Automatic annotation (TrEMBL):
UniProt keyword list: Metal-binding, Zinc, Zinc-finger
SUPFAM superfamilies membership: Zinc beta-ribbon
Domain TFIIB-type: 1-30
Source organism per UniProt: Ignisphaera aggregans
Protein name: TFIIB-type zinc ribbon-containing protein
Pfam families tied to this protein: Zn_Ribbon_TF (PF08271)
Keyword Nucleus set for record: no
MF-aspect GO terms: zinc ion binding
Coiled coil: none
InterPro entries the UniProt entry points to: Znf_TFIIB
Gene3D superfamilies cross-referenced by the UniProt entry: 1.10.472.170
Amino acid sequence: MKCPICSSDTIVWDYYHGQVVCTNCGTVIDVVYIEYQYSVADNIGRGLPTVREGIARKKQREHSSRLRSQSREVKLYEVYARRARKDVIVNFEALKKRLYGEGKERIYIHKFEPKLREQINQDKELQQLLAIIDRDPLLASRTLRGKVAIALMLKYVLNNMEPDFDAISKFTSLSRTHVRRLYKQLHDRLHRIAMYIRGSCIRH
């Protein structure tokens, strides 16, 4: 038997009230008639708790638990937000995962990063280049903006062109000096990158 309201199959008989009840949403599915009832001691007061009362208390506990969790999350967010530098924001989803012992994403991200992720999602070639960079331990440890800058410079290198540092700086919101430092790192790792490219589907 399933609940006609929520389709749950967690159905119980409430012998105290003579009802068939869904424990998920509390709907009374059917009324049953029984020839006996439980005796209730006078000192118990209202007697055995009904299924509905049990469900109500369970929902109240779950609601209180959610509120406590949300309160912890907000307080932790405020702690991290106060420490954030200029143009840096808190990745709230990553923070929640860290709070519950999940994930290793960066908690602090540059305010430009969400927009940058959108651009990555629309560029298949950039995604492939980033996948190659992520195979190199040193380059993979860079921030997202740093890895995108390296990927764009790698694209120039694969086409035997000199990287346009100004354009890359503007695209990633990194300083030109920072981009040039990343280029040096890329240049030092080109022999490794070449091996990764040979094993990928990228061909130039």
